[in-house]
Write a structure and sequence with these properties.
The chain is built from 16 helices and eleven strands. The strands form two sheets. A six-stranded mixed beta sheet has the order 8-7-6-9-10-11, sandwiched between helices. It has a five-stranded mixed beta sheet with strand order 1-2-4-3-5. The structure holds glutamic acid.
Length: 430
């Protein structure tokens, strides 16, 4: 599989940043794989009375910084290796924004669009029964990801609560607001992404007013990024979903696009627009490109043709390492996934805090705290990038993140006596 193996890609990214920071070899040795993985078989009674057995996974990458955190993906192509890679990215996503979590990820190989609501509910509950020994509000906290939503989180929280015989709100985030969910969580991934795009445009001197935006993926993240950027004055010139796309150089209204998609199942055919393919969108003339779908979309071949000034990765792992090198040479500024998509898990953290304290915040409080955390994280990554002119924003983000995780491992004693960080030297002399 070479270049397109997400697990190998995650390993390469960790290695590059650990080497740049002169970390002891043990740091990479610990971080190059999840600490624990579980594969489960989930028998589900289908509506026709037959039994189908689905395969599910949960990968727990590293718990040094705190409880494990990460979404659950329902997708026909989910594999153990993919879930492992995604769990690794979660550790660094949490670390780059400074959340007290390690990374985890789950998945079920299934096509949720072909399941009835009853089948989906039985599958979601079956998954929680199977992974229950591994999760809990202080252990590992799942959340939504590709093709999972607040309703699925509600079933999952309910199932876990039945097993444990108490209302364990804090075991899952991304729940409906009526079941301990947080205001602002639904929009959070997109809001975080829009904030870092605004910050990046600011340092590049690119006015957002009239900036042309292309968005790949019109789901949980993409549709809301489009709306928020539109509110900031940008022109949404192209969007695609898994069924097709819409292009209009004059710009489209994301609210109307969302209403059209809700009616027809796709943005393709939006009144006044021309059809556009995913490949055409990625390489079109625009200012800001937002890949908000799946992994490995911007390959080397695509990267050679990218014309955007900013690529903001709302998806996990959309750019291959070879493509990264090409974009860097072309001076395209990539806001890496672990930063650009960190808004979701940040508000998941707020949700968990609210569940644990039983005190619920206003939407203004949620958004204000998200804004503060995203701006600070952007500044830290951008400063790291400016300090080391030979690294790109992705390596800079990993450097910020790995330093935090390594420090947690160091003070826990996982790296041995010899590995002494500057932080520890300072503490000793204080
Ligand atoms: N699935 C989202 C992500 O990849 C959110 C994870 C969470 O909230 O725990 O960042």
């Amino acid at each position: 599989m070479g270049e397109l193996n997400s697990f190998k890609i995650a390993q390469e990214q960790i290695k590059a940043a650990a080497q740049k920071l002169n970390m002891p070899a043990s740091v990479y040795e610990i971080l190059k794989q999840p600490m624990r993985v579980l594969t489960v078989a989930i028998p589900v009674e289908m509506d026709d009375g037959s039994i189908r057995v689905f395969t599910g996974y949960r990968a727990q990458h590293n718990y040094a910084p705190g409880p494990l955190k990460g979404g659950v993906r329902f997708h026909p192509e989910v594999t153990l290796e993919e879930v492992m890679a995604l769990s690794m990215w979660m550790t660094f996503k949490c670390a780059v924004v400074g959340l007290p979590y390690g990374g985890a990820k789950g998945g079920i190989a299934c096509d949720p669009r072909e399941l009835s609501p009853g089948e989906l509910e039985r599958l979601s509950r079956g998954y929680i029964q199977a992974i229950a020994p591994l999760i809990g509000p202080e252990k590992d906290i799942p959340a939504p990801d590709v093709y999972t939503n607040a309703q699925i989180m509600a079933w999952m929280m309910d199932e876990f609560s039945k097993i444990r015989q108490y209302n364990a709100f804090g075991v899952i985030t991304g729940k409906p607001v009526s079941l301990g969910g947080s205001l602002g969580r639904h929009e959070a991934t997109a809001r975080g992404c829009a904030i870092v795009i605004r910050e990046m445009a600011g340092v590049l001197g690119l006015p957002l007013e009239g900036a042309r935006v292309a968005v790949q993926g019109f789901g949980n993240a993409g549709s809301i990024v489009a709306r928020l950027l539109h509110e900031m004055g940008c022109r949404i010139v192209a969007v695609v979903d898994s069924k097709g796309g819409a292009f209009d150089p004059q710009g489209m209204d994301p609210a109307k696009l969302a209403a059209f998609k809700a009616r027809t199942g796709t943005v393709k055919g939006f009144p006044g627009s021309k059809n556009i393919t995913s490949q055409e969108l990625l390489t079109m003339d625009c200012d800001i490109l937002v890949p908000a779908a799946l992994e490995n979309q911007i390959t080397a071949e695509v990267a050679r043709k990218v014309r955007a000034k900013i690529v903001a990765e709302a998806a996990n792992g959309p750019t291959t390492p070879e493509a990264d090198g090409i974009l860097r040479q072309k001076k395209v500024m990539v806001i890496p996934d672990i930063l650009a998509s960190a808004g979701g898990v940040t508000v998941s953290y707020f949700e968990w805090v609210q569940n644990n304290t039983g005190y619920y915040w206003t939407e203004e409080e949620v958004n204000g705290n998200l804004e503060r955390i995203m701006v600070r994280a952007f500044r830290e990554v951008y400063d790291m990038y400016r300090q080391h002119r030979d690294v790109d924003m992705r390596v800079a983000a990993y450097m910020v993140a790995i330093r935090r995780v390594a420090e947690a491992m160091q003070v826990r004693g996982w790296l041995g006596q010899k590995a002494c960080t500057s932080w520890q030297r300072e503490a000793k002399t204080a």
